[in-house]
């Protein structure tokens, strides 16, 4: 329509970058989901730690989440994570870095040197290398044994049957501290269906504890199945999409 003047709001945006209000809101929403599920389960919400999974997102997003109070971050790819850890070295004392991706044995050294936790220990050889390569000036590396709880051919992780034997060996390594179990269950439709593999992991966890292993960590639950995981006893939930948004793997 001719003659209509379109007046654009050209006021400069000062302060917040575009993503920050979203990020604060998303973090709040995730904390609320955890609190609600904990309430239903009769658990103390403080017994569930939030690991923000930042893979594919830039260091600035991690810095923004840190400014919102988030302290633990999960990364999947060795090279990408080292670049970000370096870029955020000024925050090192107040960030906990968790490696959660598949780990090849020729890439264990930088992980042993730069991370606080590894959730994805899926065979003894990886654990042995991490222990040998953990620098002496650092505390033992916290690790979880990854269990292929849904029995998927494509998934890494020890079988539930071999978990006790491998866990005993991992627990005996000098520079590792075996904290518990981790799983990535097959996606399932509703909360009831989602609970089954989480329950199976919790039962395995209890069995290992009954065998004398001092475990305190059940790493399970992602953006789509957080509630099911908390209902079944998760102590760390690993949340990416619900905090940072959808991932872009195109580059
Ligand atoms: C990517 C990833 C997550 C986070 O998944 P979302 O569905 O984005 O929350 C959690 N755990 C592992 C092992 C992952 O690789």
UniProtKB/TrEMBL annotation:
A Pfam family this chain is assigned to: Ala_racemase_N
Cofactors: pyridoxal 5'-phosphate
The keyword rRNA processing belongs to this UniProt entry's keyword annotation: no
Keyword Transcription regulation belongs to the record: no
UniProt domain Alanine racemase N-terminal: residue ranges: 26-247
PROSITE patterns: UPF0001
Molecular function (Gene Ontology), one example: pyridoxal phosphate binding
Modified residues (N6-(pyridoxal phosphate)lysine): 55
Keywords: Pyridoxal phosphate
InterPro entries: Ala_racemase_N (IPR001608), PLP-binding_barrel (IPR029066), PyrdxlP_homeostasis (IPR011078)
SUPFAM superfamilies noted in UniProt: PLP-binding barrel (SSF51419)
Task of the protein: Pyridoxal 5'-phosphate (PLP)-binding protein, which is involved in PLP homeostasis.
Family membership: Belongs to the pyridoxal phosphate-binding protein YggS/PROSC family.
HAMAP family: PLP_homeostasis
Protein name: Pyridoxal phosphate homeostasis protein
Organism listed in the record: Paraburkholderia piptadeniae
